[in-house]
Structures are given as C-alpha cells and as structure tokens.
Predict the structure of NADP-dependent oxidoreductase domain-containing protein.
Amino acid sequence: MLIHYPMAVKPGDAMFPLDDYGKVIEGDGHFTEVWRALEDAVAEGKVKSIGISNFNHKQIERLLAIAKIKPAVNQIEMHPYLQQQKLREFCKEKNIAITAYGSLSSPGDKVYRNMEVPNLLTDPVIVEIAKKHNRTPAQIALRWALQNGVAIIPKADDPTYMKENMQIFDFELDADDLAKIEKLDRGIRCFGVEMCTNHKEFPFAEEY
C-alpha cells in the first residue's frame, strides 16, 4: 500500500479539488500521520508492505526521521525523458526500491498528461535502437528501466501490448544503447500536477 502523493487535499470526489483559480485546495493532515496509520495497519496484519509515491528526497528524509518501518518503495515517474538519476541514487542509499510509472511516457493519457511532452515511442533514438534489436520502441523503453534496476508497471489494455511488454527478458541493451538513451534526459514530466504548485508539500519544486 502506498501514499500516492505527499500532499493532503480537501476530501471529496475529485482527485485534485480545485479552487476558483484552478489551484488545489489543501486538506488537513500530514503524510507523517498517514504513515503512522499505515504502520499500525502492518502491526495489525492488515497490510504486508507499505511505501510512498512521488516523494522528493527532503520529504523522504522527514519521513525516515519518524518512521518505525522504512518505506519499501518510492513509485515515481521515470522514463528516458525523466531519468531521475539523483533521486534513484538517494533511494538506493536508503535501501528504498524504485518503481517507475509512465515508463512509456503515457502517450494515451489525455486527462492528466502534459501533452507538450513528446511521444517517447516515436523518438528517433528509441526507434533506431528498436530496429537494431528487432524490438518495439516500447520494449526498448521498458528494458532500459529494468537494466537500471527499476521495477516497471506499464499500463496496457490491449492483450497484444500486454504480451509485448513481457517479452523484454531475452535481450539486453549494450553500452552504446544505454549511452544514447542517457542523452535523452530532459528532466520533463508527463505528470507534473501543475495545479498543485501552490501546495506546501508540492514534491516537484525540488531538483530531486
């Protein structure tokens, strides 16, 4: 079970309740209080593992200062356009695993995605590497994440894509491939939740 964002918002039906200016309405409470409740759930046998999502390194430090149970994972947006190297290294030092969402840059999401971010699956570098290995661009992006020691949770509704996403364990990207992909890092988010920039716990104001 994860704390999906470190930001408390006003309770209601909307994931991000907004005011008249299009900014999120903050709620009471703090992620440290939620974490203590999750720890209680573990103690009661209701939950096996607990983790976080979209936390920056400063928020993780504050959480670790009060935690009895260390987060098992930090689930973050990660793809070749947003490689999150510093945050990954920080979490590795703290023995917190990384799970990547948006590994394919989520080109099909029309609701929350920043449509100004290019479609990773048509990037010439990714397409070139895919042709080299006789794979699809999606398989290259997923394999890249795996070779960086990151768990992936690609979303697919089509059975063909589901099968394709699993066929990434019988090949490897070489050093030249990895070097080319590393140069694609632009530090741009598909899911920057800009409506939350006013929140005191907005996680993406920090570099990592």
